[in-house]
Amino acid sequence: INEDKLSRIIKKYEIKSVIHLAGYKSVAESVTNPSIYYSNNLGILLSVLNVMLKENCNNFIFSSSASIYRQKKDLSSFNENADLHYLNPYSHTKLIAEQIIESMFKKSNINYSILRYFNPAGAHESNLIGEESTAMPNNLFPYICKVATGKLPYLKVFGNDYETKDGTCIRDYIHITDLSAGHVKSLRYTIDNNKNTKINLGSGSFASVMEVITEFNKINDKEISFQIHPRRDGDMAASYADITLAKTLLKWEPKKSLKEICNSALLWERTI
Prior knowledge:
By secondary structure, this protein is α/β, with parallel strands linked by helices. The chain contains 9 helices and 11 strands. It has helices at residues 3-12, 27-32, 34-55, 89-105, 140-148, 176-193, 209-219, 244-250, 258-269, and strands spanning 17-20, 59-65, 111-117, 119-121, 155-158, 170-171, 173-175, 197-201, 207-208, 226-229, 238-239. Strand 2, helix 4 (89-105) and strand 3 form a beta-alpha-beta unit. Helix 1 packs across helix 3 and helix 7 (209-219) crosses helix 9 (258-269). The model has no long low-confidence stretch (mean pLDDT 94).
């Protein structure tokens, strides 16, 4: 990243807040090619923070990840005080990034909010904005949508021997518009209160891979074909949020259901 150019942009437009979303996000890709994840996810972050400190840009919202939580034996939800850990280079970059932000802004007048995403999915209700994978999808929703629309022959389900009710991984899926609203609320809270926060953004509920397939079968013209494959390196059995803090501090909670997430994702896929 060109720090001088970024400085000029911040000065020209008198920017006082930054929402940092730039980063690679595939767990599988990070396992096979870790170096690009460390160089990109951390190198760009350092440049942005350097410029913010230089230009006195006061508010920072960071896109972190629930993948930094340590898996619990009882597979219960994660709150913001849960133990931290990483299973793959992607989550490692997010954990290091959080530590960098804390360290660099510790004695500055910059306030930050670290948002730990769970599993964003779905598309905007206008059907003009959604997730498009140019290669083989790594995330469940774009993958299952391509199977539902006949662009791929079947879905690979990675592992059916986890300690969950049907053996497949369980995840907390949050509609992308709910996630976006969480960013707006978080930025407002950061500006108004001059406080640093770490907050989960998830639905507060969960669904297994098989339950997501069942939900798609209800809305699709034909059933989703799938095959069971071995577990992937770096995958947790269960990851879902306790969103009490977001409700309390931000006065925010998600509005969209799993059915609405599936519907919007499938409608978007049919347009691309």
